[in-house]
């Protein structure tokens, strides 16, 4: 009877693999067991020094070392509202800075019907930028959908990187912005065909599928047929009108559910309840939602065109260019109603700048700008 002996090479490989696994565990425990005071001081210095992309990727890398590092980085890294920086994926769902416009730009690919949002890394109107979001246009018989994703290679509603969509009516004059996650506790999911696909292959089981309406956009009909600027009207359903006032608060998503933790490992929640993952906008049921209107342009006699002051951020005249400001609740206009909350304009054939501020997020601003790309049969 012959006995088969294991190959020495296999035995050697198993031994090496075992030693490597032990070394990895000991190395991780070494980093994880650093004194918390020393670790916090080190991470604070890293966060302060790496304040711009691409060097800011080191901040993200620190948050991925272990659970202890991740929890400290979540405390050290402030939201865009406070820091004016976009660091983690959840940042695109959080309101922008209060005092300044966060400068971004959109690149359009007309052949593939896709749009990519980038964070500007310099004052130049065209640079490489830091990728933030991608959208794909899907034309349907009665409407048009723009699927928004965190992944440029997978822009489908069934993807775990899907974060929301924009839907228009047939004429392209009315739009609804849907969020894949509820912006605050108690928000109801809209009834649509997409919400009835739960359990099928078209919806991923990793993320709770849903269409939560967060904004309604409308363009006024141009019944006279005159060539002129578009008139926009945006109702931010989940943002109270008081958010633009001093001390006002807008809903801020601070965590993601456990189902999406494999794609967002830096924001793993201990509970799947949304009450603990987001802050509620307001407890006053009588308070109205924030309404945004496009800033009225002025007619330039010498140039024979409508003009707005984009402070050098827009270089090409286009009917798509706009600036949005808050509309007064009771007709009483204050200084907070003069601040531009979102501006969008053309700088090249397929390049557009997008600058936004508090109380809207990058996702909401991107969705509003996507509505400007859609064909307006009745408005032009």
Model description:
The protein is of the alpha+beta class and 380 residues long. The chain has six helices and 14 strands. The chain has a twelve-stranded antiparallel barrel with strand order 1-2-3-4-5-6-7-8-9-12-13-14. Helix 2 (36-49) packs across helix 4. The radius of gyration is 24 Å and the shape is globular. The model is unreliable at 1-17, 192-209 and 257-283 (pLDDT under 50).
Side by side, the strands of the main sheet go 1-2-3-4-5-6-7-8-9-12-13-14
**Number of E-type strands:** 14
Q: Largest beta sheet, briefly?
A: 12 strands, antiparallel, barrel
Mean pLDDT, nearest integer? Answer: 77
Unreliable sequence segments: 1-17, 192-209, 257-283
Radius of gyration: 24 Å
Structural class: alpha+beta
Count of separate DSSP helical elements? 6
Topology pattern, helix = H, strand = E: HHHHHEEEEEEEEEEEEEEH
| CA distance, first residue to last residue | 90 Å
Residues in helices, as a percent range:
10-25%
Shape: globular
Beta percentage is 15-25%
Write the layout of secondary structure elements.
Layout: H1 8-32, H2 36-49, H3 57-63, H4 67-76, H5 80-83, E1 102-109, E2 114-119, E3 130-139, E4 144-149, E5 162-168, E6 174-179, E7 212-219, E8 232-240, E9 289-294, E10 298-300, E11 305-307, E12 322-326, E13 342-346, E14 351-356, H6 362-373
Antiparallel strand pairs: 1-2, 1-14, 2-3, 3-4, 4-5, 5-6, 6-7, 7-8, 8-9, 9-12, 10-11, 12-13, 13-14
Helix pairs in contact: 2-4
Organism: Coffea arabica
Family: Belongs to the TUB family.
Domain Tubby C-terminal: 92-375
């Amino acid at each position: 009877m012959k006995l088969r002996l294991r190959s020495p090479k296999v035995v050697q490989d198993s031994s090496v693999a075992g030693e490597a696994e032990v070394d990895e565990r000991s190395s991780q425990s070494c980093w994880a067991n650093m004194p918390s005071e020393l670790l916090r001081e080190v991470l604070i210095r890293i966060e302060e020094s790496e304040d711009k992309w691409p060097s800011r990727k080191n901040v993200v890398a620190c948050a991925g070392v272990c659970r202890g590092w991740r929890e400290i980085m979540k405390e050290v890294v402030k939201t865009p509202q406070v820091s004016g920086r976009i660091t983690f994926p959840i940042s695109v769902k959080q309101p922008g800075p209060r005092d300044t416009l966060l400068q971004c730009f959109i690149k359009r690919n007309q052949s593939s019907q896709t749009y990519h949002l980038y964070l500007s890394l310099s004052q130049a109107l065209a640079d490489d930028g830091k990728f933030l979001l991608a959208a794909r246009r899907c034309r349907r018989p009665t409407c048009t959908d723009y699927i928004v994703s965190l992944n440029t290679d997978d822009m489908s509603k069934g993807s775990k990187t899907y974060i929301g969509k924009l839907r228009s009516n047939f004429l392209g004059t009315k739009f609804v912005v849907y969020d894949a996650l509820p912006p605050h506790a108690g928000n109801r999911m809209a009834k649509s065909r997409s919400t009835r696909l739960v359990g099928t292959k078209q919806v991923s089981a990793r993320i709770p599928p849903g269409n939560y309406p967060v904004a309604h956009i409308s363009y006024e009909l141009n019944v006279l047929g005159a060539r002129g600027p578009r008139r926009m009207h945006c109702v931010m359903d989940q943002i109270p009108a008081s958010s633009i006032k001093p001390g006002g608060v807008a809903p801020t998503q601070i965590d993601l559910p456990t189902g999406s933790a494999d794609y967002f490992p830096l924001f793993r929640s201990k509970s799947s309840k949304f009450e603990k993952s987001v802050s509620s906008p307001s407890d006053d049921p009588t308070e109205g939602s924030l309404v945004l209107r496009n800033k009225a342009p002025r007619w330039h006699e010498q140039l024979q065109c409508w003009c707005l002051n984009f402070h050098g951020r827009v270089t090409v005249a286009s009917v798509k260019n706009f600036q949005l400001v808050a509309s007064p609740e009771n007709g009483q206009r204050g200084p907070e109603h003069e601040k531009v909350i979102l501006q969008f304009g053309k700088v090249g054939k397929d390049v557009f700048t997008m600058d936004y501020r508090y109380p809207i997020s990058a996702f909401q601003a991107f969705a509003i700008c996507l509505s400007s790309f859609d064909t307006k049969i009745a408005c032009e």
